[in-house]
Each structure stands twice: as structure tokens, then as C-alpha cells.
Amino acid sequence: MFSKTCEYGIRATIFIASRSYQNERVGMRDIAEKIDSPEAFTAKIMQILSKNNIVKSIKGVGGGFEIPKQTMAKITLAHIVTALDGTKVFTGCGLGLSTCSEEFPCPVHDKFKSIRNELKEMLENTNLEELALGIKSGDTFLRL
């Protein structure tokens, strides 16, 4: 459903958010290791997330990536997905056809449309704060 870039980006932001709740910044190497992604690839993802104001990059000694606690509730999974993959997941055809539409539906159009709408709703209503707090409390885990 999501690209590898998006999967890694979601993992990275959840990891950074959980560490930000502990008032810690996270370095590139730690992020790449934790999300099981090549460091150079992770750096490109982090650049996109930073450019889209999802994560904050602090340079220098004691630097790293963080997400201010006061913004975590405002950042949804939809923001991350849109920054990394665009809006295709919200509007695209389930079979990847460019001509699929209401007027000319593909064989799975109606069934996929409802799934896509549910996914959109979940992504728009799930924020980093709740995901980070789930990890902090031990209710959820980010293990690979």
C-alpha cells in the first residue's frame, strides 16, 4: 500500500516522537538502525520530513532530530504519507490503472473505494502524539 520510503518515514517519525517525549534528540545513525533502513536512504527521507515541518533538524553538538511535543497532536499519519508518497493512496486505483474513475471503473473500483476511504479516515485521525504515547506506555512496540 505504501512505498518503502513512506514505511520508513512513518517508522522514523514514530521513533523520533517517542524519544522526543523523553526530551531526547535522535541522530541519523540511531534512526536508520532502529527502522532497519540504509543510512543514506534514511537521510533523504529525513530531509523530506524536515522540509515538510514534520520533524525538526538541529545541527551541531547535541543536535539531531526531534518533534516538539506541542506539535505532535497536530501531525497526522496523513501528513507523513502525503509528504512522502503524495495523495495517490487517497485517490488512486486499486489496480494502478490511470483511467479508472466513477465513469469508467476498474473491476475492483467500488470495493477498493470503500477501503481507500477507511484508510484515509484512519490516517487523518491518527496523530503522532497518540502513537508516541503508546510506545512510551508500553502498550505498543516498534520492533523489527
Q: Would you give an account of this structure?
A:
- The longest helix has 17 residues, at 4-20.
- By secondary structure, this protein is mainly α.
- A two-stranded antiparallel ribbon has the order 1-2.
- It has eight helices and two strands.
- The chain has helices spanning 4-20, 28-35, 39-51, 69-72, 77-85, 88-91, 109-124, 128-137; strands at 56-58, 64-66.
- A hairpin with a 5-residue loop joins strand 1 (56-58) and strand 2 (64-66).
Say how many strands there are. 2
The SSE order reads HHHEEHHHHH
**Poorly predicted ranges:** none
Fraction of helical residues: 55-70%
What structural class do helix, strand and pairing data support? mainly alpha
Q: Report the mean per-residue pLDDT as an integer.
A: 92
Strand content: under 5%
Apparent shape: elongated
Cα-based radius of gyration, to the nearest Å: 17 Å
Largest sheet: 2 strands, antiparallel
Side-by-side strand order of the widest sheet: 1-2
How many alpha or pi helices?
8
Relevant terms:
mainly alpha; 56% helix; 2 strands; 8 helices; 144 residues; elongated; two-stranded antiparallel sheet
Short recap of the structure:
This protein has 144 residues and is mainly alpha-helical.
What is the secondary structure topology, with strand pairs?
Blueprint: H1 4-20, H2 28-35, H3 39-51, E1 56-58, E2 64-66, H4 69-72, H5 77-85, H6 88-91, H7 109-124, H8 128-137
Antiparallel strand pairs: 1-2
Helix pairs in contact: 1-2, 1-3, 1-5, 1-8, 2-3, 5-7
